[in-house]
Design a protein that fits this description.
By secondary structure, the protein is α/β, with parallel strands linked by helices. Helices cover 30% and strands 27% of the residues. The protein has 16 helices and 22 strands. β16, α14 (335-340) and β17 (345-347) form a beta-alpha-beta unit. α7 packs across α10 (239-246). The two termini are 18 Å apart.
Length: 447
Amino acid sequence: MRIIIAGAGAVGTHLAKLFSRERHDITLIDEDASRLANLSSNYDMLTLQTSPSSIQGLREAEAGRADIFIAVTPDEARNLLICMLASRLGAKKTVARVNNAEYLGEEHRKYFASLGIGAMIYPEELAAEEIMNSVRRSWVRQCVQIQGGKLLLLCIKVRKGAPILNRPLREVSLPESPFHVVAIKRRGETIIPHGNDSIRHQDAVYFMTKPDCLDELKVITGKDEYPNVTNVLFLGGGSTTERALTRLPDFMHAKVFETNEHRIEELDGLIGKSHVMYINGDGRDVDLLIEEGINKAQAFVASTANSEMNILSCLTAKRAGVRKTVAMVENLDYIQMAESLDIGSILNKKTIAAAYIYQMMLKADVTTVKSLLIANADVAEIVVAEGSKATRNPVKDLALPASTTLGGMVRGGKAYLINGMTQLEKGDIVVAFCTDNSLKRLEKYFK
């Protein structure tokens, strides 16, 4: 597949590196030579120093031959213009990064499509959705909702005392069990488990389950004493926090620590919720946190542009007794360190954006792809096609790649967990958990 990426910033560079590993024909264009330095020599991609908003530059990049053209420069208006020009030149699909949630409305999609803008991505909006999914369930590291919440994929850190520990999975994850263990992250390695494997202290375990089974899962993982989140503190009043606050339920009270008084006034006008309070101060100040009732908060979200600040402030909140912390960590080099510090949920906008764009590249009918940062894995919703290989045998006889497992499915609007004897049918929406970039290899089973 021929992919052209305009903008060699953090998101564009990450996408180019990710896609180049799958042997796609990648061209990364930017007018700043320093951003492109060393990329073409270290990765299988072509770099081109030119203005991506120049028609001549786009022609030089052969935008008209692109299967997918992605514009992710920091300038929203420029991204829209670039996609319009690329589409006019012949690009098959275009994706523009935007900074305005209003553009994402269903009522505007046809209008933008008529201009040649096939899809738009707002990373801060996607990150905000991840944050609020995580905050709503304080005992869960990550929550992925499948088909509007009919199925849930939950990452849970399991500790000493949990009833599920040190028992073979064949004894605790039976075909009739209300959950399916799809993966285990242990000491930096992601394991697709089998019946003889067991869960150990400090494992991050990925469970597929249904909403009505959460109470049972909470008990068996030793999380039954975790409180419901009604008070949450936010460090930083940037765009990600703004979008998260728009999703804040009425029963949840929030305090936002922001040092810029003008930004506080702006947020107050935009959000307009009486259960949101703004504190003009540094949320890293322990005395200020105590004064503002951190001991009464059940969750703490650090979403500033500074990864180190977010990690350290979450550690501070943990020591103050907050059970649930969420850190935005934009520096990928810090992810493993943040995980080892056991600070809670870790999110990265680049990987969230990459997952969204990645689903557009798949040939099978893949409706959703989520990037599971800590597991270095993807979870995808895949529609089973008529006559596909997946429908010919029970799951246990499909010879699926060892780095994949099928966790659940939705059939006729009803959710089911998948086991070895499950027979897939046309139209089933299957949830696949994939490590080692194996999602592309899984496509052939479903198309």
